[in-house]
Structures are given as structure tokens and as C-alpha cells.
Amino acid sequence: MNSQNDENLKELFERFLSAEQAESGVEDIQKAEQILRQHPAPEPDSMLIANIKAEIAMRLPAKRTSTFTKIAYRVAYAAAAIMIITAVSLRTFDMDAPEPGRVQYASIMPTAIWESDDIVTDDVDLAIFTIEIEQIEDELRSLQSGEYISDSDSSLSELEMELVAINNDFWKE
Amino acid sequence: MVNSDDLAQLIIGCKSSDSKCFSQIVDMYASRLYGYFYRLTGNKDLSDELLSELFVKLVEKIASYKGGSFEGWLFRIASNIFHDYLRSKQRRKKLLDVHKEQIESEITEQNKSGNEQIDLLEIQLKRMDADTRELIMLRFYSQLSFKEIAKMRSEPIGTTLAKLHRGLKKLRELMQ
Questions:
Q1: Which residues of A touch B149 (CB under 8 A)?
Q2: Binary contact (B35, A41; C-beta < 8 A)
Q3: Residue A91 to residue A109: CA distance in whole angstroms
Q4: Distance between CA B73 and CA B7 in Å, rounded?
Q5: Fewest beta carbons within 10 Å, which of A68, A101, A143, B38?
């Protein structure tokens, strides 16, 4: 592809100069370029070209490794982030927080509901979801206030299991 | 000369880290790029170094090539590498040493036979200002149109045309 072949030098010069000056300008350029063609620069050494090709070949697998390493790092970061969030969430449930649940049920809200356009179905889903969360909140409050008579350790475990089950159901949708 | 479809295929291959495609690109452009560097530095060792650096950059940057004139893109990298080279203090010192050596050997070179014409052009090019010399070499070796060169240099096409016309006219006079 030679872009110079596509341009009309005379036409280009005529945009800035008179027709006569344009013709002279084209001639100046063509003759000077002829001089450059008559005085070629030395060619690159064949050993240099071989070395360049070898260096490129050497760098390519390294590039792939580097891309792979980057992906591996990203996956590791994501996994670490998930683990930290899970640990913090579990700790929050274990602690005697005065208002548990509010932030957490917002964070486990399925993306499908946020992104869906089906308002009627989503409303029903959200209503069921909210009722279940409210029930859990009530149970938690009962536990905190000591109203619950049953064994508190097993009740907490049941609650946790219930939360996990609700979360899983929603993600399946 | 490879057609634009074949070139596009080669570039796709390069983007997939295919060393054979890179080798073909090297074969296609090494001579012109080497000429560009050689005419700007007047030194074979430096031109070797800059050409190697350019192809290393090509491997690193090929993913960022988004279409358009490949020659324009490649010579823009070449031009940046040359300017980086000029900016480097150590290398500038080396260049000054090279210039000094060239001036000292100027009279001897003029009397040489065989490569006399090559040396004469080199001497006359050194008499021109750096920007005009670079513009002439960019036009000659990249084979880009004035429109593409003006775009690359971020200047109006009339400015590029006038500078190059003046420069080539002067070079012609110096060579006569």
C-alpha cells in the first residue's frame, strides 16, 4: 500500500499556489525525491534482522505468560475479596448488632431483579423476599431479647441455614 | 508489496502473538525503517539499536493498533523512538561525538569513490535543520501522503507541504 500513489501533488499545491507555481513545486519535489532514490541508505544487516526476529520470538511467550499471570492475579484478588466479604458478613451475624439485616438483604438482592423489566413478577418476588427477611429479622430480635426459649446456638445455625437457602434460591432464578 | 487484505491478516496474526506474522512484518518494513533511522542518525550502530527497539515496541503495542494506516502508525512509533533517543542525555552526547567524527572525516569522505554519493547525501542532510531533515525522511521512507504526515505531526497540510517543498528544494541545491 503506497499512500503517495493516491495523492495528486499538483492538485494539492494548487490549493495554496498558482497553477504555474504548483507545477514548479511538484517538479521540485519529484526531482529531490529522485536524488534520494539515487542515494539509497545502507540495508540492515541480515544478522540484525535475524536477531530482531529471535528477540520477538523470545518476547512472545513471555507476553503470553504475563497475560496469564495478570488473569491469575485478578482471579486471586476476586477470590480474596469474596472470602473477606463472607468472613465480615458471618462476623456481623455473630455479633450483637442493634439493626442486623438491613444492609445485608440489600447486598444479596439478585441482580436479575435489579436488571429485569418485568415489574409485576419482580414486585411479587420482592414482596416474598421482603417478607422472608422480615421474618428472619423478627426471629433475630426475639433471640436478642431472650424471648426465644430454645437453644440459642442451634437457633442461630438454623437461621444461618435459612439465609443461605434463601440466597441460593434467588440466585438460581 | 503486500496488499491491504494480506497486511490486515498479518496484523491479526501479530495480535494473536504469531511469531511468523511478526517476522513477515519485519521483512516488509525493516529496510525502510532502517533507512529512516540511518538518514537521521548517520550511524549504523545507532540505527541497529533503534530498529531493534522499534520492533520490540511493535510487539508491546500491536494490541493498541485500531486500524487506519499501518505505515503511519509504525512510523509514528519510529519517530517517537527517535525523539526519545534525542532526549536522552547520554545518547545526545553520543550523537554529538558522532557528529564530531563526521565533520572531521567530511573532507576524506568527499574524496572517496564507491560510496561517495551516499556520504555526500549524508553530509548535505546534516546541514539542514533537524525538523526538515526528519520531515524529508518521513516522507521518503514512510511513503505516506502529505495528508497523513500532516495528521501525524498535528499541523495543517499547507504547513507540511511548504516545509517539505522548501527542504527538498534546498537539498536539491546542496546536492548540485
A1: none
A2: yes
A3: 20
A4: 13
A5: A68
